[in-house]
Amino acid sequence: MDIIRLKNIKKQYKNGTTALYDLNLNIEKGSFVFIIGGSGSGKSTLMKLLYREEKPTSGQIMVGGLNVAKLRNSKVYKLRRKLGIVFQDYRLLPKLTVYENVAFAMEVIGATKAETRVKVLKSLEIVGLKNKIHNYPSQLSGGEQQRVAIARAIVNNPKMLLCDEPTGNLDPEMSLEVMRIIEKINKDWKTTVLVVTHDKEIVNKLQKQVITLKEGRLINNKVKGTYDDENA
Predict the structure, then answer these.
(1) What share of the chain is helix, strand, coil (3-state, %, to 5)?
(2) Which of 74, 29, 20, 78 is nearest to 47 (CA)?
């Protein structure tokens, strides 16, 4: 069963730049997919279309049963509740503790304090940071900050986890540690995972589905692939 379906997607920006051309793509529920490609290949644009930061110029995008391209701005929250999003730069709130950063995602949907506490502590346990709940982001390493960001992204048990260059600011050892956590979430929770990355070693080590974009076009979709130098 497909949880994401893109049909004939074109994305052209107002300055005339076309980021994606006639993109067709199906992602099965529970998949773990790497999206790779060089700079300007359309990877980040694809992610922004999936979480509705951008709208396609033409074509259809279905995410978790929602027609994203036709979703009104006032209804975008329905899509976002199905998604957890992890960025390269963590995007933690510096004046909030680790616990408060993760809890913030529960507060915006009106969860009770009791429910929030249970889910926040569970999420932080999964990423191995239950002992850092009172720390502030400035007291954490980059890898720890990214793990807090992952905890925040999964605290609402999303159906999909979208990760845009999640290891971009991390050293190789910490990159692998972070990716193993994301892999475990995919395996244990059956969460569909999409990861945009330039990290060749991670892609080759994890041996997941690999989608390759080049100059806005899909040129490869391998069920179990590696980082192909010739195409990426």
Answers:
(1) 40, 25, 35
(2) 20
Q: Which SS3 state, helix, strand or coil, does residue 122 take?
A: helix
Q: Which of 102-108's residues contact partners 24+ apart within 8 Å by CB, and which partners?
A: 102/148, 102/151, 102/152, 102/155, 103/155, 104/152, 105/152, 105/153, 105/155, 105/156, 106/155, 106/156
Q: Phi-psi region for residue 203, left (φ > 0), alpha (ψ -120 to 50) or beta?
A: alpha
Tell me: the pLDDT tens digits for 113-168? 999 999 999 999 999 999 999 999 999 999 999 999 999 999 999 999 999 999 99
Q: What is the CA radius of gyration of the chain?
A: 17
| Structure-block tokens of residue 55 | 């709208």
Q: Is 130 helix (H, G, I), strand (E, B) or coil?
A: helix
- Distance, C-alpha 82 to centroid of its chain: 12
Distance, in Å, from the CA atom of 217 to the CA atom of 202, rounded to the nearest integer, reads 23
Quote the strand ranges of 46-94, DSSP E.
Answer: 58-63, 66-67, 83-87
Q: What is the pLDDT of residue 164?
A: 95
Which residue, among 102, 143, 136, 145, has the nearest Cα to 122 in the 3D structure?
A: 102
Whether the pTM exceeds 0.90: the reply is: yes
Helix (H, G, I), strand (E, B) or coil at 141: coil
> Who contacts 164 (Cβ-Cβ below 8 Å, separation ≥6)?
44, 47, 85, 86, 87, 88, 196
Residue 17 has pLDDT above 70, yes or no: yes
In this prediction, residue 228 has a pLDDT band, given cuts at 50, 70 and 90, of low
